[in-house]
Amino acid sequence: METLAAVNGNLNAIGYGLAAIGPGIGIGYLVGKSVEAMARQPEAAGMVRTTMFLGIAFTEALALIGFVVFILIGL
Question: For FRET with 34, which of 16, 25, 43, 73 sits at 20 to 30 Å CA-CA?
Fold first, then answer.
């Protein structure tokens, strides 16, 4: 039975690692498009930057929720 718990724990870690790829890609895409928007319209950089940081916060929250679920299920 201990071996099965170890396997489940390892699968949980792999699952969370794979789930963390999504927010990483999302944040990269968001920052890239924000930099592109600021380069095209520098006068709107303040508003774009604020929106970018809000998007990063929401995307990162998804990763943190996944981490909490990983911890709760892993125990």
Answer: 16
Distance CA 63, CA 44 (A): 29
Q: Which residue has the tokens 């679920």?
A: 69
Per-residue pLDDT band at 49 (split at 50, 70, 90) = very high
Q: Which two tokens stand for residue 12?
A: 């949980």
Across the chain, what does the average pLDDT equal?
82
pTM across the whole model: 0.70
Residue with tokens 């981490």: 67
Report d(CA 3, CA 22) in Å as an integer. Answer: 30
pLDDT of amino acid 34: 95
Q: What tokens does 32 get?
A: 């890239």
CA distance 7 to 9: 5
**Residue in the structure block whose two tokens are 């724990």:** 9
